[in-house]
């Protein structure tokens, strides 16, 4: 690899900073796995593994690190990361969340179809289901997920993109991934969206009571920012570490399927169980309360006196020195 690929680092008297998109928890785990020589094949695709190798050069040559997290979420992991060989004696600026954090009033946002649908439901009554743009689930899994959501009896907004390989609208489709006339059966209770949705506005909506997610770090940060508990369904890369952080560390979520069972299809009964766990009863109440508290802390981190605002000020001062 030539320095031509990294023009900024090749400029005389220039300094570079590595932006780290994943969580500090995952960066710590990744550093440990690589130190042990662990094969990352089960964790990441060949493309992602090549990206990790490429990023090792960025880490080695950088003058500091900018991370989309904050001490309110990952203080312990940020401290561990600072002691890692590649990060030692280099400043770490935790300036997250990078997503907008003001809470919407539901009157100052553009109302598309799914937001108008949410307007018709009570506070904290809808489960938002979205697995991002880079995750796919099998035909059988789509069917089980649909059945579990329906059986739970709770309202849901399900983003089922083309990447998910399912066609629930065409009853003539040769692929019967969902029960026939599923959309009709859940009318008024569930809504399926095939395209893009304004996720920040959805998570900020008063009707959302839980988020079933693949646990990509951006989605995690957005959910925590808005105080929404997460039903964690990790699929690859940094997602298992993020899921454990939310469920075991922060206590703002529950893992739908453990990473050790990633090859298994999650049964409808488990989907129903997790939805009921988050949306009903004492355990769900505690989880929602913890998520709200964490959301307030994360939003405060961006304000004057908050950890992220101070880190950003330090970063600017570092550039100006």
TrEMBL record:
Transferase as UniProt keyword: yes
Keyword NADP: no
SUPFAM superfamilies: UDP-Glycosyltransferase/glycogen phosphorylase
Organism encoding this protein: Dendrobium chrysotoxum (Orchid)
Domain of life: Eukaryota
A Pfam match: Glyco_transf_N
Glycosyltransferase N-terminal domain location: 6-100
PANTHER family according to UniProt: GLYCOSYLTRANSFERASE
GO biological process assignments: carbohydrate derivative biosynthetic process
Family to which this protein belongs: Belongs to the UDP-glycosyltransferase family.
GO molecular function terms attached to this record: UDP-glycosyltransferase activity
Keywords attached to this entry: Glycosyltransferase, Transferase
Protein name: Glycosyltransferase N-terminal domain-containing protein
